[in-house]
Amino acid sequence: MARGGARAAGGRPGWVWALPGGPGCAGHARRVIADALASLDVPRDVVGDAKLMVSELATNAHQHAGDHGPHELWLYFGEGGAGEVRCAVFDALADAALPGYSWTSGDCGRGLSIVRELSEGRWGMVRALSRLGPPVRGKAVWFAVPVHGPVALPTSGP
Fold it and tell me: What are the sequence ranges of the domains in the chain?
């Protein structure tokens, strides 16, 4: 299901996976990112944090942009390439803004605060085009995962 050599945000090489619609989206994203990061020798505790963060982003895409596909999962190098890879969830709800943060705003709205905390503030949103199939305008919400030592994203999926 991975598309090797695909271009992720900013034209960087990386991996791209289609995310299924529906409530299985987050579970699928967790499994895929865990396998991909493990293949890059990312430490298990960092993989655990990444699984939680991608689950939050995939859940948001399903809940708030469920009718605005395609939904994709991207893994690519961050700014400067060294020291981090970025994981992003793309959806085609291009005009949506990121909601504000609140730890006390009721039963929802905490997911992006979790992403902010676990990523140590290395997260954000970019306007982008989808990478699988015909280009579709949308947004990608991303977070950074620290990596140690040289890492090369392969030209084919994990």
Answer: 16-146
Which amino acid, one-letter code, is at 115? V
Structure tokens at 101: 């943060």
* E strand map for the chain: 6-7, 13-18, 72-77, 84-91, 123-129, 137-146
Top CATH class of 16-146 equals alpha beta
The number of beta carbons lying within 10 Å of the beta carbon of residue 114 is 16
The number of CA neighbours under 13 Å toward the Cβ of 38 is 10
What pTM value is reported for the model?
Answer: 0.82
pLDDT tens per residue across span 22-52 = 888 999 999 999 999 998 888 899 999 999 9
Residue keyed to tokens 């705003």: 105
> If residue 44 lies in a helix (H) or strand (E), which one and from where to where?
helix 44-65
**Is residue 112 within 8 Å of residue 54, measured between CB atoms?**
no
Residue 150 φ/ψ, nearest 5 degrees:
-70, 135
